[in-house]
Amino acid sequence: MSFLDKIFNKGPKPIIAESQSRDLSILKAGNRPQGPGVMVAQQDEYYVTASVELGNTTTKCVIMATNLNNSQSYLINKTVNMTRDVRAPKPDEEVFGKTVWGIELSKESVADMIKDTVLESLKKAHVDMDEDLDFVVRSTGVTAGFATTQEVGQMVKALADGCLDAGISHTKMAPAMSSAHLPKRLQKYTLLDNVMFDGAVVSVVPPKGKEVVANEMEGELVTAGIKLGAKWTEVDYRNPCVSLDFGSTLAGRIVNKDEPYASTVGNFLGLAGVISDSLAKGSKQIDQKNGAALDLFDPKLLKKADGKKHQEKAKQYAKEAHELINICKVPEGIDRFGTVPLDAAGAKAAGTCLIGCDVGTNADGLDGLVEIGAKIYEDEGIPTLLATMDHVSANIVYRVLDVAFEENLILDGSILGVTGRAGITGKKPELILEYAQDKFKDVVFVEDGLALGSAIMARCMNSMGTQKNPLGGNQGERCILKKRMQAQGTIE
Prior knowledge:
Layout: H1 3-7, E1 15-17, H2 24-29, E2 46-54, E3 58-67, E4 73-82, E5 95-98, E6 104-106, H3 107-125, E7 135-140, H4 152-165, H5 184-187, E8 204-205, H6 216-229, E9 241-246, E10 250-251, E11 253-255, E12 262-270, H7 273-281, H8 299-305, H9 308-322, E13 325-329, E14 336-337, E15 340-341, H10 344-350, E16 353-359, H11 366-379, H12 382-406, E17 415-419, H13 421-424, H14 428-436, E18 442-446, H15 449-461, H16 481-488
Parallel strand pairs: 1-18, 2-7, 8-12, 9-17, 12-16, 17-18
Antiparallel strand pairs: 2-3, 3-4, 5-6, 9-10, 9-11, 11-12, 13-16, 14-15
InterPro entries: Methan_mark_14
Protein name: Methanogenesis marker protein 14
Pfam families: DUF2114
């Protein structure tokens, strides 16, 4: 910290990795002749992926392009629609799930929503799905309305149907079996002939055995996405690490530093953004059924919320809100916590600790937060309400990490990565950093962690790592390709 920062009581500034936007045609133009007889020194090849995600609050299609020579990734387009706008299931359609706010979903209604979002994104990005697009990864944060972890698979299938309806080939949603099955322009960048995809994503394997929590894929993707996003910073966010995704629901992982693949020793689950949404609904300034905290955000109000008066009051209101919030190691003998289906026995057998966040029992106490939000709005106004949301979210981070430390899950030298709307907006990064800076080697905040993770998943499935700038392995160490090949028996 500088001398002037100490005088003015300023703490360290959060490291926030923001998406770097580029036009695909401009990226590709870099490989073209710059003049008569003049070519660029090195031909770059871009791997273009689409992340298709249906969340409780938003539905996104995020198109990324990754330079396969240096692993630098760029945002081509991000199209965001509100999940609350999904059409209602028709009378002859089966309702197979619902969002955390109770919006009913059918396979067909989800497919229609995804189709429209994908086509909109491709059009805005000027990306040809046949010529430019290489791979599509689907994911969902909607796990609350399912009875079992297996039913989440139906949602992923509905997402695939939407992509197919949009005209995307099924071959762009499944890994290649060998380098010969990839387009010729990509064949020299794949390591499929050396190592096969064995389920590890950026050198981390999921808990052993059957799926132990419904948001497992979400945790896998955000961990990978933060690793990619951190490449835009100086932080070497590799193993050991901790990831936290604050979407409407909570996801994330605690990862050790085993080699060649690290193990997932902890999983986060439960409620996150819906807690702020509930506080926001107390203001009556947003839709009482489908409104979100995002609907209240305004730059001028956020600036006011940073004032000392609002911050001091927000701290007290946050304490009151947290009296309703239950954060703990998930007890044995239950099959759902914070609305998320889980297999507690399976998690124990796999050696994975589940840490959850709930309000009441499976969100039945959210009305209490609405009442607190109403009180704040009536007595103090919107700026204090926004400030309270920041402190409530930051306190969730404190508490879930405290549990993880108490369970001795987090290794010395671990790096914390945070993503999601309820974790990186407003003053939350500063508040989280205040707590975490002495407990972690580094802390990084990443925009669009889930979408970035999908871009990485696409590369992992086709063994397209970048050995000179690895995402996998441990901090400060070399690429683990040789260790992977030894583990798979392709070399001694």
